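2024-03-11 09:14:02 DEBUG pipeline.ingest accepted 1 chain
2024-03-11 09:14:02 DEBUG pipeline.ingest length=277
2024-03-11 09:14:03 DEBUG pipeline.predict start
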Amino acid sequence: MATLFKVMVVALAGYVAMLALVFWFQGKLIFFPLQELYSLTPQARGLAYEAVKLRSEDGEQLAAWWIPASASKPVQGTVLLFHGNAGNISHRSDYAAMFYGLGYNTFLVDYRGYGESTGKPSEAGTYRDATASWAWLTATRGIKAADIVIFGESLGGGIATWLAAKQAPRALILSSTFTSVPDLGAEIYPWLPVRWISRIHYNNLANLAQVRVPLLIAHSPEDEIIAYAHGERLYAVAHEPKTFLKMRGGHNEGFVFAREQWVRAVQEFLQRHAGKQ
């Protein structure tokens, strides 16, 4: 009996230690930044671009790419793109190529700690990075809020909804994102009291309740990382006008630029809400 008690005490102590590690180092489970840039720049795809440095309100220097739309036809608007939790902007030039084809400028920004940006990623930090990105577009480049489409991919959806709730963009697009980090964490780690110990939230459900701009949500039933139900729940709480785009493929295969019909659906959504608040 005493041996069993000792085993239980050791197991409990180990579990508590694991909880402490998850509590203090949960950023390591969420952010996977890469500093090295992928060799395929927008220029390698035939897209002219400008390497931009901007500074956050707390002094971090952020690296970004400004990819202008073609000068041969009218510019339809500007896309401010917030990428997922891994890699950096150099892995997202496919998005820029897609929006270039649709007549849009694209602004790709690396969060602190990603690519050539300084600092260490955090939820609060990414919100400051989003604020700096918005300010660069509106104040530095003089682009009207009504001409900006905010796009959030996976983790970037948490940053995109936060910014859209505070600003008045033309539209918001969310691709393969979650309701909140605690919701997702509880599904991935059912043996942990995730909702009690989570210090990172990215509460898209709460943010979308405050968003009043046209919304497109794209999600795949085959997403093996963020379940399809997250997209459905986000769509359910969102205000009109809203559109749901059902994709195919896994989390890293269902990107909207990957298939022609999805690109067409994005184009139709953007055309339907061009110039509308």
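2024-03-11 09:14:41 DEBUG pipeline.report The radius of gyration is 20 Å.
2024-03-11 09:14:41 DEBUG pipeline.predict end
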